[in-house]
Amino acid sequence: MSKFSSDFLIGAATAAHQVEGNNIHSDYWAMEHMAHSTFNEPSLDAVDHYNRYEEDIKLMAQAGLSAYRFSIEWARIEPEEGKFDETAIAHYRSVLECCHANHITPIVTMMHFTSPVWVIQNGGWENERTVDAFARYCGYVVERLGDLMGYVVTINEANMGLQVAAIEERYRRQMMAKMSQMQAQGLEGAAQIGMNFNTMMENMQLQKQENKDVFGTEEPQNFVSGRTAEGDILVMRAHQAAKKAMKAAKPELKIGLSLSLHDIQAAEGGEENALHEWDEEFSHYVPYILDDDFFGLQNYTRSIIGVDGIKPVPQGAETTQMDYEFYPEALEHVIRRVSREFGAIGKEMPVMVTENGIATEDDTRRVTFIGRATDGVAACMRDGIPVLGYMYWSLMDNFEWQKGFSMKFGLIAVDRATQERMPKPSLEFLGKQKH
Q1: CB neighbours of 215 closer than 8 A, spacing ≥ 6?
Q2: Which architecture does CATH list for 9-434?
Q3: Structure confidence by residue, pLDDT tens digits, 53-103
Q4: What keywords are assigned to this protein (predicted)?
C-alpha cells in the first residue's frame, strides 16, 4: 500500500542563491566577498543550477518526485531599484515550463533570505520602504509568470530574524560569563540555517567599515540580521502586502509563508520557557497568516527547554553535520502542534512541509531520516490533518550560507570541479514514498 495518495506532492527544495551561482547583485554576494567575511568561502558559480536546471529537474522526475520548491531571485529580477530585468524573467519562465514539461509541480518562493543590495542600502528589513518594494517585485513577477504558478511561498522562514536575535543574545550572555569557546560553539546548532556565530561576533568590529562602504551603514539589516520586535511585524506586513499584490494579478494562486519551527519539548522546570519559545517561533504569527491558503512548515530537529533555556543535545545522541540532533520524529510532532493551534481557533489550515532534511555524508542515515519523517507525515494525514506535500531539503549538496559547501544535505552529490551530478540512493528512495 502506498504511503501517500496520488495527489500528495513529494519533492525537494532549493534556494536560488545556494544553487544558481553568480548572484552578483545580492547582499549575500557582497558579504561573501568582504575581507572580513564570516563566510567560509564565497558561492561563486555554486552548483550552476542557473544553467543546469533542466538536467536537475529531469533527475527529480526520473526518480518519481512530483514537486520542486525553488526560489526566484529578487536581485536578478530587480538588480537596481525600479529597473526590472526581462532576461531574468524569461529564465524563470523557462524553469517553470521545464517543471510542467516533466510533470513536476512548481512551488515558488519569492524571497529565500537574499535581497538586492539596494534594498539593504535603503534600510533593509527594518525599514518601511521594504514592504512596498517587496510587494511591487512580487506583483511584477506574478503578472508575467503567474500563468505557470500554482503555489507560492512569499518569504522563507519569516521568523529567522527573531531566532538569530535570540541566539546572539544567548551568545553575549555566555561570553559575559566567560564560557569556553567550545561551549559557545554549541549555539550554532540552535538555528535552522548555516551560520558561524563565533566568527560573526569576533569580526563584528572589523566588518563595520566594510559594511558602510557597501551598504551605507555599519549595521546593515539583512533578512537574517537579528530582528527587532518592530522589524518582525514588518516582515509579516511585507508578506501580506505581497500576497495582496499577487492575488490582484492571479486570484486563484495559493499563497503562504514558511516558518522555521523546532519540536519544542519542555524538560522538568522548563515548561514556562518552552511556552515562550513556541510563542516566539509560531504562535504570535498566527493572526498574520490566518487568511493564507496554506502554511509552509520547516523543521529539522527538536529543542529541549529547561529552567535556563535551551539545553544541549542529549549526551550520546546522534548529531548531524549541522550539530542538530538526529530526530526525524520532530516533524510529526510539529505538524500536530501547528494543526492543534489552528484548530483551537476554528481554522483548518493546509500544511505544506516546505523543508525537512539532514546534513550527513552517510546517505544511509538520510534514507532512514526520510523514511521516519515521512512515516510521521502519513500518520498525521491518517488522523485527518491536511498535509499537501513534503519537500526534502535539499535537492543537491549546495552552498549552505556561511558554512559554504561543507554541509551535505543533498539527494544529489555534485562534483564542483566538473559540476557533474551524482544521484544518491536517497533520491530514488524519496520518490518511492508515493509508490
Answers
A1: 27, 30, 117, 120, 121, 124
A2: Alpha-Beta Barrel (3.20)
A3: 999 999 999 999 999 999 999 999 999 999 999 999 999 999 999 999 999
A4: Hydrolase
Handedness of CA 295, 143, 252, 434 (dihedral sign): negative
Contact residues for 229 (Cβ-Cβ < 8 A; gap 6+): none
Task: Give the CA count within 13 Å in the CB-facing half-sphere of 416.
Answer: 16
Instruction: Give 240-289 pLDDT, tens digit per residue.
Output: 999 999 999 999 999 999 999 999 999 999 999 999 999 999 999 999 99
| Cβ pair 125, 221 in contact under 8 A | yes
Q: Residue 312 has what DSSP assignment?
A: P
Where do the structural domains in the chain lie, given as residue ranges?
Answer: 9-434
Q: Beta strands 151-155 and 9-13: pairing type?
A: unpaired
The H or E element spanning position 424 is none
| 217 class by beta-carbon count within 10 Å (0-12 exposed, 13-18 middle, 19+ buried) | middle
CA distance 263 to 389: 19
How do residues 352-394 score in pLDDT, each as one tens digit? Answer: 999 999 999 999 999 999 999 999 999 999 999 999 999 999 9
Range scoring the smallest mean pLDDT among 11-25, 131-145, 175-189: 175-189
Report the C-alpha gap between 46 and 151 in whole angstroms: 26
Give pTM, 2 decimals: 0.94
Q: How confident is the model at residue 182 (pLDDT cuts 50, 70, 90)?
A: very low
- Chain CA centroid to CA 20, Å: 16
H helices of 216-290, where?
Answer: 229-249, 271-281, 286-289
Phi, psi (degrees; rounded to nearest 5) at 42: -80, 160
The CA angle 249-252-258, to the nearest 5 degrees, is 90
Matching residue, cell 543574545: 169
Q: Which three cell numbers stand for residue 89?
A: 524573467
